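Input:
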Amino acid sequence: MNDRDRAAALSWRARGRRQLVTGTVALSVLSGLAVGGVAVMASGEGAAASATSGTQSTDDPTSSGSSGSVTQSHRSGVARSSGS
Amino acid sequence: MTVSVQSLERAATWDGRALGVDVRLVVTDAGTIDTARDILLRELDELDRACSRFRPDSEIATIDRAQGRRVLISPLLTEAIGVALDAARGTAGDLDPTLGQVMSSLGYDRDFAAVPVDDPAAPVVVRHRVNWTAVELNPAACTVRVPAGVHLDLGATAKAWAADRAAARIRDVVGGSVLVGLGGDIALAGESLAEGWPIQVQDRPDGSDPGDADTAGPTQTVAVHTGGLATSSTTARRWRRGGETMHHLLDPRTGAPAVTPWRTVSVAAPTCLAANIASTTAIIRGVMGQKSLQDSGFAGRLVDHGGRVTTVNGWPMP
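Output:
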C-alpha cells in the first residue's frame, strides 16, 4: 500500500467510525438489537459483469467514503456471499 | 494495551453443509480448526433441532402441533423467536416470522433441495390472517403461544443470528479471528485482520447456473473488517408452482413472493443479523428498498433485474 492509498484508507476508516455511530442508531430503529462495529473497503473487482450492467452510487461523490477511500487489492475472497 | 492484528497466513478453512446451505469456517490459527469446527457443528445442530420447519422432531414442529396452546420451549428457541420478533418490530412487520404456513402452501414445505423445481399443481391459497403481533412469547418463563394454524418460519433471521453466535462462541474458545459463513450470511469475530476479510459478493441472474461463472452477474470482492455481511437474493431459491415462479422472500402484505426491482442486495453491518435484516427488508420493500437501506446507514449494494448495480452509504465502488 502506497502513501496515497494508506491515507485514503485511514480517511475511509475515520468515516467508517462515524458511520458506526449512525449505523448503531439506525439498527436500534431497524431491529432493536445491540451491535458492534463494521467497516468495508473495496479489494478488487471480479469478472463477469453482464453486458447490461452499470454501477451507480447514491453517495455524495465529494465525501471521503465512496470514491477516495477505495483500496485496490488483488486478493481472492476467502468466502463468498451470493445470496440465501 | 497491545493491539494484535491477525493475518490469513496461517489460516485454515473448513467447508460443509448445514441448515440447507453451504457452510464455510475460517480461523486464523490453523491449529484450532478442528475445535472450531466441532463448536460450529454443535451450534448448528442445536439450532436445527430447535428451529427447523422440516424436522418432525423440532421444537417448532411441537409448537405447530400445539394448535394454539402455550408451549414450554428451550432457552435457545426462546432467544431465536425473540430475535425474529425484534426484527419484525424493527421493520414494521416486513420481516414476519408467522409466514411458515404460507411458505409451505407455495411449495417450500421441505428442505429446499427436495422442493420440486416445477410442480404443475396450483398452490393452495392460504390467507395470512394474523401477523407477528399474535405471537405471545414469555422470555422469562421460556414459553410461547402461537395461534392455531399459524406456523413459525424463522428463516429470515435464524441463520444470520446463528452465524453471529457461532463466530463469537468459537472466538471465545480458540481466540484469533473467525469467519463463519452460512449461505450468503457471513459473521466475523475476534481480532481484526490488517487488510480485512476479503469476501466475494456474487450476484446471480435469474435462471443462472450457480456453478457456471459465465452466467454469473456482477461480482465484487470487498474487505470486511468486523461485524457481518449478508446477501439476500430472489434468485437463490426459486421454484415454479402452478406455472408461477416463486422465491422465498415473501411480502407479508400479500402473502406472495415480493415483487421487487432488486434481485440481489448485499449489506455490511455491525452484525451479520443486522446485515441480513437490512438486505432482506430492502428486497421486500421493493421500490422503497433503496431508501430503506440508505436510512439504515449501512453500506449496501443493490443489483436490479437488469444487472445494474447501485451502492449506498459508502459501499466501495469497484
